[in-house]
Amino acid sequence: MKKIAVLTSGGDAPGMNAAVRAVVRKAIYEGLDVAGVLNGYQGLIEGKIELLQLGSVGDIIQRGGTILRSARSPEFRTLEGRQKAVEQIKLHGIEGLVVIGGDGSFMGALELTLLGIPCVCVPATIDNDINGTEFTIGFDTALNTVIEAIDKIRDTATSHERTFIVEVMGRNAGDLALWAGLAGGAETILIPEEKFDSTDLIKRLKSGTGRGKKHSIIVVAEGVMSANELADILKKEANIETRVSVLGHIQRGGSPSARDRVIASQYGARAVEVLMEGRSGVAVGMRDHLVIDYDLQDVFKGLHELDMSMYTLSKELSI
Amino acid sequence: MKKIAVLTSGGDAPGMNAAVRAVVRKAIYEGLDVAGVLNGYQGLIEGKIELLQLGSVGDIIQRGGTILRSARSPEFRTLEGRQKAVEQIKLHGIEGLVVIGGDGSFMGALELTLLGIPCVCVPATIDNDINGTEFTIGFDTALNTVIEAIDKIRDTATSHERTFIVEVMGRNAGDLALWAGLAGGAETILIPEEKFDSTDLIKRLKSGTGRGKKHSIIVVAEGVMSANELADILKKEANIETRVSVLGHIQRGGSPSARDRVIASQYGARAVEVLMEGRSGVAVGMRDHLVIDYDLQDVFKGLHELDMSMYTLSKELSI
Amino acid sequence: MKKIAVLTSGGDAPGMNAAVRAVVRKAIYEGLDVAGVLNGYQGLIEGKIELLQLGSVGDIIQRGGTILRSARSPEFRTLEGRQKAVEQIKLHGIEGLVVIGGDGSFMGALELTLLGIPCVCVPATIDNDINGTEFTIGFDTALNTVIEAIDKIRDTATSHERTFIVEVMGRNAGDLALWAGLAGGAETILIPEEKFDSTDLIKRLKSGTGRGKKHSIIVVAEGVMSANELADILKKEANIETRVSVLGHIQRGGSPSARDRVIASQYGARAVEVLMEGRSGVAVGMRDHLVIDYDLQDVFKGLHELDMSMYTLSKELSI
Amino acid sequence: MKKIAVLTSGGDAPGMNAAVRAVVRKAIYEGLDVAGVLNGYQGLIEGKIELLQLGSVGDIIQRGGTILRSARSPEFRTLEGRQKAVEQIKLHGIEGLVVIGGDGSFMGALELTLLGIPCVCVPATIDNDINGTEFTIGFDTALNTVIEAIDKIRDTATSHERTFIVEVMGRNAGDLALWAGLAGGAETILIPEEKFDSTDLIKRLKSGTGRGKKHSIIVVAEGVMSANELADILKKEANIETRVSVLGHIQRGGSPSARDRVIASQYGARAVEVLMEGRSGVAVGMRDHLVIDYDLQDVFKGLHELDMSMYTLSKELSI
């Protein structure tokens, strides 16, 4: 193996740059050439491929976003588009590809492996919703961004004795809501993994008020409902006044946390090793606190599981 | 003069605690007793008044929110309510009151002076919209919170080559939008002080795209319109796709910046001095970089003026 | 079991308050009374013991330091002192004690169990040097504090093309230096677990310069030597000019990271469960990503092991 | 005028990049060509001069350090060196130079004006020690960095009931120590502008202890003495135990605060205007809250004056 390439795809996540850096430096350390593909799969189709040097990834470990940029590519969803991508890969003498992104990006990599291109995937998404790995790159940073926001909102909630609803990202996975709610000391956490029950929620809020709670934070994952919808329900069903905060896109950005930089470095380097071993269709991740690699197809054979003991704990601690 | 009191009122602003601390410590330094009124004017009516000690304000200079809490008080808007407040003030032997808050709170103080209570007002609102002072407590912190958010959003904007609309607080005053836009390197800033012109905005955005700009940040003050409304206009009138981020309540919270802690300390101490000089109906503030005090009625005789040279500058620097 | 107590001891670590909160809330949730001991073991001897309520631990999950405070206690090192402590524990009807701290504090707890007091220990130290657990409370926060400092120093290192030596905490354990060095993109990491070899270090630095490196960050754990000593060696042996930064006490403080708040909540709650099960002489911790508890004596049967694969990785990525 | 250049010199300060960006964008807005000089005056001598585009300064407003880098230049201190610089300036067709830095850099610019090169200076130094301007670029950011450090140290000081000495930058000017001490709630502030009196300090500390103060923060500017020297004095003269924290180089780095980005933008743009007006030997700054320009020679005719009312206030508030 003489040359590999790396791309970032899907929604950006803090730590993607640290992963790109690790792929590039590890590859050069191992004597390989390494190219960067710009704009994800679309750039692959268009041949936006450049050789990278050690200096290309200098001073980026601490930066949010991705220097390789990302883009949606409807064209890549067609066989024709993917064949163009394969042509470009061959044209540039690329013998293996590291794909950094979420499950949509992983699906793209799986398709490429079917066309004969060795691919290894590195999980990077703030949602932490990749099956088979305990942590994805970006989750820890997003989590810290959310709790900083909750800490700020708590200042106002306490000063004005109000109930706030904080909406965080997470369409299918409640990880961000659950961890942030527990770490932020939220009184209530609503996650997609649990059926929403307005009667139970209202009972809980009223019982808190009965015990003398004067302010309260509810964290809701967007996959359950929007914060505004929830505010309407509480107003309509129980005349409970709330304020709403939708954290939105700030959750994706920012300088990566130490933890995200470390796992991004580990995952990126491992991906290069896997390619050098001549393997393909592999995902990198963490299990039992160890960096692992596993069959890419396993990602699609189940759903990422939430640690429900944390959910129980959050209920006990918010009495 | 033997005893004064202090209260916080209206929306909370970072640095209110630093101001409360300064009032309390300066008063004690000068040999006065000082009481804290809980829950703003409503607490005044209800006699929620406690003597404070040096220790009562220990370890609060760095905290957001207000330890004295704040509340709305429809009752205080009635003469009857205000008379109750006056009774409580007299009952507690309070000879002067420091009111920390925004212009609504200042109006309440003005009413109290008409009933014979010596009042001095300290401007604290993240909107920086008090006539007669260059800076209010909380503005600098909110500004830094907003640019941190913009920095994060820029990571995604750059990575995905997208246009983002960031909505910041400011119903009547564009200070926060203007300063944040300039400091955040926003390509476009929309403030209530300038008439909104969609044609001009669209021309500007398209000209940027023409020059090769691949991403763009628009900062809009809520007083102009909501970010969602703006997104709809851009979509409808020019088919421009944008993403929206409403910063909301995080702008009110957080540990105060150094600058806000300093002016809060200066304003709070000056307020005590003014009361000790036997004056009433006075506002404290900053003009020409100096701490000043001026007639409280002047606050209502005009509007806070925006520095339009900054607006011009922002346009020149975002070519 | 009707009543337990909790204390913090040794150097403070961010997240201690979150652990105290978890102990108190979990205990109350389980129907127990819970007391807080002020000033660690010294306070135990002096009977500084107060019943805590839900409200006693409100609004502290985000605070650095420890509301229970900590103190050194030479008296507790004597049998007489410990017997006084036992008397106080019995006097207050305390049937179990949660000790939050580092290995010195754990040793104290072990002594108390020998005197018949059921004790459970929660690891909290920024050094991450407790045998038997993958993570201690405070490590993740300190790590993020260190990389923020390194990011700042890198600004100057890059601007002036200089080599900086950053000294971080860690007398016996190199965890903080290793993780921070890897996450901070340091070119060189010196840890107590590896023998220091000035010849090798100088060769490495010169080889970097030869490849065109214009600035460089060296992270050194205080257990290896001080940054100033290292600067002297590099100057004397190879005429290499460096700048020195000793991070010092800022590493202990600050609002805990999300991760530290989560594990503090988990460890604190588990400690209460262990006491309720009638067990004593137990340490709580994390292994293979799971919250565990194990024999307190095991803490002293070995040394915390560093993940040397991270050390190798850091060398490969800093070529 | 068709072409100008910009350089950064001396110690780096957060906001230098924002100033470079403003110079470049304002110049291009006005139809000028603008070049960047690398490595300060040394780069000028060596002809390290590159034409800059709008894109050259994209995405740098939020970055610490300086993309133009800085360097010491003993050669520039000789007439011969400066003549080489003048030759390069002429060779590149540069008709005016913007120098961003501290007073040493300003002196260099003054020398260049004597050799016929139109120069305008922009004050950027975290020390805030330039005569004639209320604020220099970088001061506000450094100030916030220092108070964040003090907030962290206070966590430990409170938890362990200790006295801490925090050493901040400032050889001749006490601005950083004074503002940080006031904003950080320090009990004592030692600045070069005030004669150090150990007897008075010890009396003050003991009186605090007498009133029940259990912890205390002393902020000392490096120009008074080092934190370690102070600790020795307190130990020797009064047996007062203290802990020491030397903040060091972290004070120079970091993403600039909103305020620093704003004044950097204003100063940079004004500098271009001054050059376009055909003026030379001018410094830009702020007075009475307004952006001003004034004779560069005035910088050296006096010393920056500290606001001693803040010093008095800090003493009153730390009773």
Automatic annotation (TrEMBL), chains A, B, C, D:
Chain sites annotated for binding Mg(2+): D103
Q: How does it assemble?
A: Homotetramer.
User: Which cofactor does this sequence's record say it needs?
Assistant: Mg(2+)
Enumerate the GO terms in the molecular function aspect.
6-phosphofructokinase activity
Q: What is the lineage of its organism?
A: Bacteria, Bacillati, Bacillota, Bacilli, Bacillales
Task: Indicate where this protein resides in the cell.
Answer: Cytoplasm
Q: Which UniProt keywords apply?
A: Allosteric enzyme, ATP-binding, Cytoplasm, Glycolysis, Kinase, Magnesium, Metal-binding, Nucleotide-binding, Transferase
Look up the coiled coil feature and give its residue ranges: none
For this protein, the record's HAMAP family field holds: Phosphofructokinase_I_B1
State what protein this is by name: ATP-dependent 6-phosphofructokinase
- Which annotated residues bind ATP? G11, R72, S73, G102, D103, G104, S105
